[in-house]
Amino acid sequence: MARVTINVDLGELPGEDEELYALAGVCNVACGGHAGDEGSMRRAVGCVARARAALAAHPGYPDRARFGRASVSMAPSALAECVADQCGAIAWIARAAGIAVDAVKPHGALYHDAARDPAIARALIDGVTAALGGGVRLVGPPRGALADEARVRAIAYAREGFADRAYRADGSLVPRGDPGASIEEPDEAATQALRLARSGAVETICVHGDGARAVAIARAVRTALATAALLDAQVAP
User: Fold this and answer.
1) What is the pTM of this model?
2) Which CATH number fits the domain that encloses residue 131?
3) Half-sphere exposure of residue 160: CA atoms within 13 angstroms, side-chain side
4) Beta-carbon neighbour count of residue 157 at 10 Å?
5) How far from each other are the two terminal CA atoms of the chain, in whole angstroms?
6) How far is CA 234 from CA 53, 193, 198, 202, 231, in A?
7) Tell me: the pLDDT tens digits for 69-113?
8) What range defines the domain where residue 210 resides?
9) Does residue 182 lie within any of the structural domains?
10) Please, which residues have CB within 8 angstroms of residue 87's CB and are 6 or more apart in sequence?
């Protein structure tokens, strides 16, 4: 059975617990769209380097008021430029620290819109490749326009599941704001992570770093996957 990595969305909140970086195999660092600025990116990149984790850019719609969780209407060229600017910003800081951006995972509404709309998927990938080249990995939903466009362009793609988000019977996520949308109990998140890993449908499992119990959930998920010999503890070169 294939092993999975743990990825954690980071660099979004002040006072973030550095332990989250040590628990992650891949750290998705907010890079100025929905959250993040030069100071937070520098701190996060330093944490990634100390943890010897892999660094992923985490671009989102430029909408801090709604934390990038609402769709924003943008022309494809403007969206591509916005994504390129964000990925370029984190890449510049990473180079100064002696590490590289290994992957890109879009955030929030951009993540879901790119899976739904081929034009948004193309614009997103245009922005990523403009800033980082074609050798970077994309992280996204197991199915949809983003996965399809990555396949067409021969870009490596990691299918993602969520330890701390609830799923509907059809495999879609329960929308944020609906009752039970988030999983807050570490044991429940660990059980879901094991189910996802054993399904073979994903290569990476996300824990959201902005959750109130993020550290406890990440610990439980990592322990469960490691005990079951399902954890690929990716280490940056």
Assistant:
1) 0.95
2) 3.20.20.370
3) 32
4) 20
5) 24
6) 7, 17, 18, 15, 9
7) 999 999 999 999 999 999 999 999 999 999 999 999 999 999 999
8) 5-227
9) yes
10) 31, 57, 59, 101, 104, 127, 128, 131, 132
Backbone Cα Rg of the chain? 16
Inter-residue contact 3 to 54 (CB < 8 Å)? no
Neighbours of 45 (CB within 10 A): 23
Q: Which residues have CB under 8 Å from 95's CB, separation 6+?
A: none
Give the pLDDT band (50/70/90) at residue 234. low
Domain assignment present for residue 43? The answer is yes
Output the six-digit token pair for 56: 């992923």
Cα–Cα dist 80/100, whole Å: 21
Distance of alpha carbon 208 from alpha carbon 236, whole angstroms = 21
Which residues does 141 contact at the CB level (< 8 Å), separation at least 6? 111, 112, 115, 147, 159, 160
Within 137-223, strands assigned E span 137-140, 157-162, 204-208
The answer to whether residue 162 is domain-embedded is yes
- Cα–Cα distance measured from residue 104 to residue 99, given in angstroms and rounded to the nearest whole number: 15
Per the structure, the count of domains in the chain is 1
Number of residues written out for the chain = 237
Does residue 142 lie in a domain region? yes
Please identify which residue in the block is written with the tokens 């890079």. Answer: 31
What's at 29, amino acid-wise? V
